[in-house]
Amino acid sequence: MMNQSRNTILNHIRQSLGYDHIEANTLETLEARLANHPVHEQPVLKQALIPQFIQQLEKVAGTFETIPNIKDIPFVILDFLQQQQLPEKLVVDSRLKTLPWPNKLQLAYRAAQADDMVSVSCAFAGIAETGSLVLLSSLASPTTLNFLPDNHIVILYKENLVAFMEEVWTRLRAQAIPRTVNIITGPSRTADIEQTIQLGAHGPRRLHVVLVERSM
Question: Cα Rg for the chain, rounded, in angstroms?
Answer without folding.
Answer: 22
